[in-house]
Amino acid sequence: MSLPQTLHSAAQRRASEASKHRRRLQLTDLGCVIWSATGAQLVRFGTVNDSLVGSSHEWHAPYWLVTIVLAALWWVVLGAWGTRETSILGYGPEEYKRVVTASLWLFGAIAIVSYVFQLDTARGYVAVALPLGIVTLLGARWVMRAVLVSARSNGKHLRRVLVVGSPAAAAHTGRQLSEHLEAGYLPIAAYLPGYPGAELRTPVRELPVLGYAEDLDSIVSIVERTGVDAVAISGAALPPQVLRQLGWQLAARDVGMIVAPALTDIAGPRIRTQPVAGLPLIHVTTPKLTGGKRVLKRSVDIVASLAILAVLSIPMLLVALAIFIDDPGPVIFRQTRIGRAGKPFQMLKFRSMVVDAEARLKELQRDNEGAGLLFKMKHDPRITRLGRFLRRYSVDELPQLINVLRGEMSLVGPRPPLPSEVAGYDDFAHRRLLVKPGVTGLWQVSGRSDLSWEDSIRLDLYYVENWSLTQDFMIVLRTLRAVVGKSGAY
Predict the structure, then answer these.
(1) Which residues belong to the signal peptide in this entry (predicted)?
(2) Residue 127 located in a structural domain
């Protein structure tokens, strides 16, 4: 088989994989909405078949028909809202946001129609169908995402990408895409127009450079020869006219074109594109957790922490008793941490170490396995038998909910730093102190103690720069998985 035939066959195989996943997603969504609509009918009406909906003066329809129509509309709206687009599957919160938004819009439309036409729709039916459907859909999407990410980590469902740009910009784009294969992009080669003889190396992989010419025909030839699925233009790689013509050529060959600006760790909600005189200007908004946003976050902190403490109060008392029996002494460990705006506070934790742990820290410094300014040991001799269990499942952090109620911490935020760590911060790291530290955060769900110092700082800064309530919700869900998985906990 010739090279063009081999590449065409590989492209067909990748397209077939994507098509199969979309079909599985469609069937999964269909099953979820049928389950939710049927469940709502059974909860509200039981097995009675004579329940009717309609106008009190004109026509009526049985609820089994409403259930069928609702499930069909829900499934169609999910597709129309783009919840199954390949570009959003496997990475980021956009898929989940679209599922929730589509569902809310559908039920909002149903409420408007019911009001306008004076339909006697059972509120209990809607009150069950909507939350049941959203929870079911999100749970199913989470499972499907786990399957997709697993497949991508094994080299499947990946779009092969040719990176075009300057050496620095192409290396940055290639590194970011290679480190996040769950997003579905695999850089296979680079094209460096105007930089003859340059090589491209990234910490993740070395990308072969296939050309340096600045003409359109050379790039198109490389695209055809490699059989890539997309071309990622990084930085000001080509003149505007050549870039426009390249877009036409790629569209004719059903190859995607991705423009990757030199923006790192900027979340989607902060980016707005505005066409001006033919130029797609990218506006990046300034992150501000003030006013209504701060009130909303604080309200969620108070309600959620109170609810959790109410549910776990008795188990926490039992944990405290177990700590005292295992190693007599104070059950609560208090440590000075630095909060928002550099204000110190006493962070509370269940004691997981021996009573004189702080005094023994100096003698263990030579065995420090932590990164940067952090002290970590996988087998710290100061940890008690029970303490190792508490740390592994993050039970020792539950008293921090009291810090949340006091307003010293938030449920989600950057890792609460020690004064010694803050003393070593550079100007950029100090931005972590713009918001309250959190009981959990991106550091908790991205490796915990296994993170390097640089990655820990980067994740905290990302959170500060891109805060949203949706992101907080997703971090809480990922925290539950991280705690169960126990990765990086010691």
Answers:
(1) none
(2) yes
